[in-house]
Structure formats: C-alpha cells, structure tokens
Specification:
Elements: E1 2-5, E2 12-15, H1 25-38, E3 41-43, H2 50-58, H3 139-144, H4 148-154, H5 163-169
Parallel strand pairs: 2-3
Antiparallel strand pairs: 1-2
Length: 176
C-alpha cells in the first residue's frame, strides 16, 4: 500500500490496497495514519462490491446505521441519490423533509449526533461524465493556515452548524 499526497495541506490517494481482501491490523493502522495526516483519502481501484465496502468500513469501528436502517442498497449503506427506484431523476418536492438537492450548498455527516462521525466512506455507483463534483474541506488544515492574528481573534469562539436551519434555507419546511 502506498499513500501519495494530492495537495500540500490535505488529501491523498491510497494505491495498492485491495479492499476485497481480508483486512489486517497493519492495513487498519496504515489507513488510520493516512486519514489522521490527510483527512481525505481516495482508495484507487477499490472494490465496488457492497459486501466489501461494508466489511472494510466495519474494520474501523461500529457503523452509524442510516435512519430506519432500510437503505435502498443494503441496511448498512445510506443511499444518497437523486434517482428513484426506476433510475429516473427525482423531481424537487418542496414538501419533502430532505432530498439530495438540500446538500448542494454544504453538507457534513451527522452533525446532530453527540459523538461525531469518525469518517465517511463514499462509493459512487453512477456518476455523470462531468460536473456534480464532490468538494472536501479539512477544517484542521484551514485553521492551521490562518495567520496568528486571526487565530488570536477567534480564540474561544464556537461555531455551530444547525442542520435544520440549513435545510430551511433551501426551502424545506419543518413542523406539524
């Protein structure tokens, strides 16, 4: 397994890791180190099998199961898609509680949980040939890169991400 930095501050690619093979303690340790250093890691040529994805994910701790644990693909996989069961694009519904379009501006996994999500393992089944980019940020790297006067100015401040307020801004209505 080799870890190749993709950016000077964060993000790396992991090559030579067979995610379909049994996971060893050494593999777990190497991936943990890479994630601690780079925050975002792309595993090149990872297995696209749902069973391999679930097994690999479980090697790093208990899974956060999707609401209701009745994912369209498997109970352990949270299906984020703008496609319905027939593969058609789901039309926007202003009365829906949440839908894929709600996450186009900003998204973080499970901000409502007391224990934050450790990592998210993403697997693209169907991706468009262009556009629809997923953009990542490492807030640790962003903070580290701030000039010291700004760090001094924000010392002691707390940021709060209100998922429900963010959804309301996209038109989602809560209540009743």
């Amino acid at each position: 397994m080799q870890v190749n930095p993709l950016h000077p501050l964060f993000a790396a690619e992991i090559t030579g890791l067979d995610t379909s093979a049994p996971i060893t303690a050494e593999t777990i340790e190497a991936v943990e180190r890479a994630m601690a250093e780079y925050a975002v890691c792309i595993i090149r040529d990872a297995s696209l099998s749902d069973a391999d994805h679930i097994r690999f994910s479980r090697a790093f701790g208990p899974l956060e199961l999707p609401p209701g644990s009745r994912g369209r693909i498997a109970p352990e996989l949270y299906d984020i898609s703008n496609l319905d069961v027939k593969g058609e694009i789901t039309p926007f519904d202003p009365n829906a509680k949440a839908q894929p379009i709600d996450f186009e501006r900003f998204h973080t996994d499970s901000p409502f949980n007391t224990l934050p999500t450790k990592w998210s393992f993403l697997l693209g089944y169907i991706v468009p040939p262009e556009g629809a980019d997923t953009i990542f940020a490492d807030t640790r790297a962003a903070y580290d890169d701030l000039p010291q006067p700004m760090k001094d100015r924000i010392e002691g401040l707390v940021a709060e991400h209100d998922m429900f307020r963010a959804l309301e801004r996209t038109g989602v209505k809560f209540g009743d």
